[in-house]
Design brief:
Blueprint: E1 19-23, E2 26-29, E3 47-48, E4 66-70, E5 76-79, H1 80-83, E6 89-96, E7 119-128, H2 129-135, E8 145-150, H3 160-163, E9 166-170, E10 178-183, E11 186-187, E12 197-199, E13 212-218, H4 225-228, E14 253-258, E15 270-279, E16 285-291, E17 299-300, E18 302-304, E19 314-322, E20 325-335, E21 362-366
Bound molecules: (molybdopterin-S,S)-OXO-molybdenum.
């Protein structure tokens, strides 16, 4: 048995038993550790960094952090303290890595083998990007993208485009986007992008730029490699290029959290509460069905807990009387937009956006 990896220093405050440490920059929540309280506790929330995070010092005085705003009528630098005067909203939302579910791709794409745990439901608080635009005179004519730049230091001698975390988003994304300084009611810790983070509800993790130092409105997408040559739906066997669809919006998805199939879980015959999580991506989850026979029959699940809006997930439950035997348990969500979670994933060479219900199915033995 291999020894579990230790949490890295910047995330040492996390609850190790709830997490799978893939590497210092990739930490996943166990399927059994989401709980049934809707909001994911911070010490159980996944972490994904494309490059090592900046120094812990940047969160020592969050209000002093400076954001440079470009591509607007009155370009300027604003501190977090100044941003706090412009408005405040709180957004409950699913934060999910583009590659969550990659472990289930039969082609074994390179990248972290996330199962279900590169996701959480959290509440980010901050100022609407629209309020910031208003305060700076509005975006330049002809702008087509909003681009956020991460605050990592670029080692000298390197072409910044090769490692910089800079993501461009279509203008529709602005509507619900915020610049956030709080997560679950506390200042955003470094691990999750404090002192200031761009939050784009409904969009995959990578688009939510941590320790944002620049927000720009521009005609073109970022020249950074993370925008041009990665996070795109690259057909199998092809090279990634800018003509392929960028990984932006999240599709409808759900999975079972209990039973969880983890070692030591002993499922006794009788009444079992099958639980899980569901979200619609750009619209709310409207309905969830559960199967225990690999998709032959489906029953409607009940939602658990409050509806925190279209970007949050819903927890669901269905009670079933299970006799001893073998079961294949899966869930299938339908969004408010009417999209049904598909049986099959969309094949792509980097293993992004897996929402196949069959891939997320669990084989469970009841004794
Ligand atoms: N930002 C920055 N600045 N950097 C990095 O690295 N990453 C991404 C995002 N943002 C980054 C950023 C990713 S990729 C993700 S998922 C996210 O983030 C995560 O988050 P958390 O908080 O959980 O860690 Mo995939 O799509």
């Amino acid at each position: 048995k291999t020894q579990a990896k230790a949490l890295p220093a910047y995330a040492s405050w996390k609850h190790a038993d709830s997490l799978i440490v893939h590497s210092a920059n990739t930490i996943e929540t166990k399927r059994s550790a989401f709980g049934s309280g809707l909001i994911t506790p911070l010490d159980r929330l996944f972490v994904r960094n494309n490059v090592a995070p900046p120094s812990e010092q940047i969160v020592a005085d969050p209000d002093a952090w400076v954001l440079s705003i470009k591509g607007v009528k009155n370009p300027q630098d604003m501190t977090v303290a100044q941003l706090k005067r412009l408005g405040l909203v709180a957004v409950p939302m699913v934060l999910q890595c583009s590659g969550n579910g990659r472990a289930y791709f039969p082609e074994k794409p390179s990248g972290t083998k996330w199962t279900v745990g590169a996701a959480g439901c959290v509440v980010f608080s901050g100022v609407p990007v629209k309020a910031v635009l208003e305060a700076t005179g509005g975006m330049d004519a002809g702008a087509k993208y909003m681009t956020g730049t991460g605050g990592e230091d670029i080692p000298e001698g390197l072409d910044p485009n090769t490692i910089m975390v800079e993501r461009s988003l279509p203008l529709e994304a602005i509507d619900d986007a915020i610049l956030a300084w709080e997560i679950n009611g506390q200042p955003i810790p470094l691990a999750h992008g404090g002192p200031l983070r761009l939050i784009v509800p409904g969009y995959t993790g990578v688009n939510n730029v941590k320790y944002i130092k620049q927000l720009a409105f521009s005609k073109d997408q970022s020249a950074a490699s993370i925008q041009q040559n990665s996070y795109r739906m690259t057909p199998m066997g092809e090279k990634t290029n800018v003509n392929q669809e960028s990984v932006w919006e999240m599709p409808v998805k759900s999975w079972i959290t209990s039973p969880n199939g983890e070692p030591g879980e002993d499922l006794k015959a009788g009444l079992v509460q099958i639980q899980g999580l569901a979200f619609g991506g750009m619209s709310a989850a409207k309905e969830v069905e559960v199967t225990v026979d690999g998709g032959k029959n489906w029953v409607k699940a009940q939602f658990v807990g409050p509806d925190l809006g279209k970007y949050a997930w819903r927890q669901f439950v269905v009670g079933m009387d299970l006799k001893p035997g073998q079961y294949e348990i899966a869930s299938r969500a339908t969004s408010e937009a009417g999209t049904v979670q598909p049986e099959e994933r969309v094949a792509n060479s980097h293993g992004y956006l897996n929402n196949s219900w069959r891939d997320h199915m669990l084989a469970v033995t009841v004794v």
